[in-house]
Write a structure and sequence with these properties.
about 160 residues, 8 helices, mainly alpha
Length: about 160
């Protein structure tokens, strides 16, 4: 049964998630959503709504869109990550200090994860697996082998 493909929702989601910068896109979208939520807080909590109000809503929406677009179109991840980090840093001035720093940090970390994601990188081998392979290789080289070469007496006779 090991040769049959995995079926079900979880393996399909895992396969979909493996070919895109999932956590970075999710953090960027959550950072933008958190900033939007803090702008809807009561007037006693809001420090300032921002420059004329529009930019205070525009930048978090851009963050959410960049996060979602990264998830569904990972080929453009570099562009989305740069726009996402600029929108995250711009939210410092326009939206309650970047959603009380939480949205700003989520957006910046998510953008960095998106920027650093490499699609064609081989899966990392764990340290335990590398040690196991090294021990097996060392055991193979340490085993004495039968030598087919002459011991030297036959060579002396031929010379």
């Amino acid at each position: 049964m090991s040769g049959t493909p995995k079926q079900g929702v979880r393996p399909a989601f895992h396969d979909w998630r493996a070919v895109r910068p999932f956590w970075g896109g999710l953090l960027l979208a959550l950072g933008g959503a958190e900033i939007l939520v803090t702008e809807k807080a009561s007037l006693k909590v809001i420090m300032h709504i921002g420059m004329q109000g529009l930019a205070g809503y525009l930048l978090p929406v851009v963050m959410v869109l960049c996060g979602l677009l990264t998830l569904f179109s990972p080929g453009q991840r570099i562009f989305y990550s740069i726009i996402g980090v600029l929108a995250s840093l711009g939210s410092w001035l326009t939206s309650n200090l970047g959603g009380f720093f939480i949205g700003l940090l989520l957006g910046a970390v998510g953008s960095c994860l998106i920027f650093g994601w490499l699609p064609d990188q081989a899966p990392r081998v764990s340290r335990r697996q590398r040690r196991k392979e090294a021990r097996a290789e060392a055991a193979e080289t340490a085993e004495p082998t039968e030598s087919a070469e002459p011991t030297g007496t036959a060579e002396a006779v031929q010379l």
